[in-house]
Amino acid sequence: MNLESCAAGTTATAKDIAGRERGPDRLPPPMSGVTVTARAGAPEETAADTRVVGLFEGDSLSDPGLQRLVDLGEAKPGLKKVAVAHEDAPGGGQRRVLICGLGSRDEFDPERARVAAAAAAARAKELGAVSLSWAAPGGAGVAGAIVEGTLLKLYSFDRFKSKQDDGGDGVESLELAAADVDSGDVERARVAAAAANAARDLQNLPANVATPTHLAERAGEIADQHESLDVEILDRDAIVARGMGAFVAVAQGTYEEPRLIVLRWRPPGASGPHVAFVGKAVTFDTGGISIKPSAKMHEMKFDMSGGAAVIEALAGIAELGMPATVTGVIPATENMPSGRSVKPGDIVTAMNGKTIEVNNTDAEGRLILADALCYAVEQGAERIVDLATLTGAIIVALGHTYAGLFSNDDEWLASVEAAGSATGEIGWRMPLHPEYFELTKGQYADLTNAAEQRVAMSSYAAEFLRQFVDGRPWVHMDIAGTAWGLTRNYTGKGASGFGTRTLIELARRTAG
Fold first, then answer.
1. Interval 13-33: pLDDT, tens
2. Which ranges constitute the DSSP H helices of 268-304?
């Protein structure tokens, strides 16, 4: 790890970022906790205490004892249905067998594999299983999807509970057994799921712990583990010196120090385009002077979800040693009301010289992203993806199922969309249009961050961001509806880590 210094302002030292002693609120970096392996050979030869057998509609199981449960109707092929049986284990004794419904074979795909795996994992945990072995069904991406569904489902966050779950240590190992199981697919899935769960940890931390400084420390810890991953941390003075007036405006109201966190992955032999991942990290969003209603304001600790996804995606990319060139840019700050807060009507200047009327201080995400996108362009990014919990309007449009995707480049959008579909983190393209751009024009400055007309607000925000990418191929992912509140059984309704696995898969696909 190399810690780069900044030309102006001050930066933390490597010791400050990576080697600091931790008090009770300085939590250690999260770990997966589950060992994942792939094994070629007969599934029934496993040493695991619990075995999972998939059941498709219209199929029969080769074991007569297990098939009898199907005939009796105790085991069903419907997706997510799980029945419990027992069989003789090698060396004597009995072990559990979970018969897991997979639905129609024609409709079975990696996403359904995640769903089925999560159902089996939940039942296995309930039964006190320690080791789990899946007889992996065939199909491209299925083995990896089973790993993801299992690890995402087994995630829990109870660090601040005085009484921990006493249900035992839980599942400690997962095995994928099949004649042709792809160990590379399994390993990528393990790393991606662990990265998503690490992002969920950052999301779930309270805002008095997950400050901008804490996120910077986490980035430093990750960089410290990888020779080809550099970290640069810009403090408030350095952000001011860089001319990031939009970012500074949001950060000036809080007494918590802001940070621009930059992670650069430059492995030997890297190929493909230079890709920048930009993640919004408002560690708590009160709305500033345009203060939010108190109802559900506690959920605004999740307004750093895009930044969490970028930080942990870089961790996964580095762990997998992907031969890609990736820069992560994470603007991190609180948005707080105080005597020094930016006021409605103030005019600020972004890094690229564009002036902005701040007509709503609760439209702060697009302000910090404006300067972060300019910084990514300055760093030489050839393609850009930004992730942000940006607009409540995207939830009205797409609910908690799809992220909103906006782009100025069809080919780059197709790449991002394909990576999301491969990981189950699906997106739906939303429109950009010159008429939406007209709404962004200010009366007294080049742009306004919030138009008086409350129409097409997600598209409006995306058009605003487009003014800061210098025409580079760019995709904006509005994850306000998917960063938490997903109803998929493998993530539950809390923090989802959405976008982390998409970015890792996108890096893999763009690595030449």
1. 333 433 333 333 444 444 458
2. none
CA-CA distance, 219 to 223, in Å (whole number)?
A: 6
CB 78 within 8 Å of CB 59: no
Question: Structure pTM?
Answer: 0.94
How many separate domains does the chain show?
2
- For residue 467, being part of any structural domain is answered with no
Under 8 Å between Cβ of 271 and 512: yes
**Residue 432 burial (CB count, 10 A):** 18
Which residues are tagged catalytic? 292, 366
Q: Is residue 407 part of a domain?
A: yes
- 402 falls within a domain: yes
Structural tokens at position 226: 């990888």
Using the 3D structure, point to which of 121, 143, 176 is the last residue of a domain. 176
CA distances from 197 to 32, 191, 282, 463 (A): 8, 10, 19, 32
CA distance 263 to 271: 18
CATH number for the domain spanning 228: value is: 3.40.630.10
284-323 confidence digits (pLDDT tens): 999 999 999 999 999 999 999 999 999 999 999 999 999 9
Q: Are residues 45 and 93 in the same domain?
A: yes
CA–CA gap between residue 315 and residue 31 (Å, rounded): 12
Range of the domain at 101: 39-176
- Is residue 243 a part of any domain in this protein? yes
**Which whole-number Å values give the CA distances from 36 to 33, 49, 294, in the listed order?**
10, 15, 43
Map tokens 């998503």 to a residue.
Answer: 196
Q: Are 138 and 180 in contact (CB under 8 A)?
A: yes
* CA contacts within 13 A on the Cβ side of 391: 27
Who contacts 418 (Cβ-Cβ below 8 Å, separation ≥6)? 509
Cα 67 to Cα 73: distance, rounded to the nearest angstrom: 10
- Does position 10 have pLDDT exceeding 70, yes or no? no
Q: Which residue is associated with the tokens 């976008």? A: 499
Q: Based on the domain organization, do 168 and 300 belong to the same domain?
A: no
Candidates 222, 230, 161; CA nearest to 194 is: 222
